[in-house]
């Protein structure tokens, strides 16, 4: 079953790649059918098999030879692995369904921000709406925990954005709101702590290595998403471990 679910993840990953390609351009994600962005040729079913077609075609369009971004392959593999992890963690349950939906949104937000330095309103607003609608039905979390998580995510990052507008945009604030609604209080602190530590380490090492200057913006959403994913999957365990260690 875990393998089947991972296969489902691969199928879904093709759709996520379409979303990542088209949403920043303001294009529809349902039509036209998948085509090569260079030669416009419509892709045959054989070109659309996740992982396999990229490997068989050696990362190039079958018709014009234009390179397919390596990101396509990375998103496919990552989505498959994450689906396997979600099944391993939750089994067949309502929790699995919700976590899967949130994971897909996380993947799209992560890659779009990495490629465009944008958290798209057309992704994050529906994401927040879905999380709000799911609040009363989320197993293992009380309504008040989830709402408090959303409020904390919003409030804390809004403060950071006020103090440090160059480093934190409103897109990050909306994303933190979504993450807070997904993981709830107190796991929202785990999510934010991981994001800031990871973002600080990555920013610091890019600065030290000279790959980025002090003024270069570094997209923060990938770090928030990483923190959100870890907190969604293991927030409670991390907090339990932390309290045992402190007390
Ligand atoms: Zn082509």
SSE arrangement:
Layout: H1 2-22, H2 52-56, H3 70-90, H4 94-116, H5 121-134, H6 143-163, H7 170-183, H8 187-208, H9 221-246
The structure holds zinc ion.
Residues 36, 38-39, 41, 61, 63-64, 66 line the site of zinc ion (ZN).
How does this model look, in words?
This protein is mainly alpha-helical. It has two domains: 1-92, no CATH class; 94-247. It is 68% helix and 0% strand. It has nine helices and no strands. The N and C termini lie far apart (40 Å). The mean pLDDT is 93. The site of zinc ion (ZN) has 8 residues, from loops.
Fill in the keyword field for this structure.
9 helices, 2 domains, binds zinc ion, 247 residues, mainly alpha, 68% helix
How would you concisely characterize the structure shown here?
The chain has 247 residues and is mainly alpha-helical. The chain is 68% helix and 0% strand. It has helices at residues 2-22, 52-56, 70-90, 94-116, 121-134, 143-163, 170-183, 187-208, 221-246.
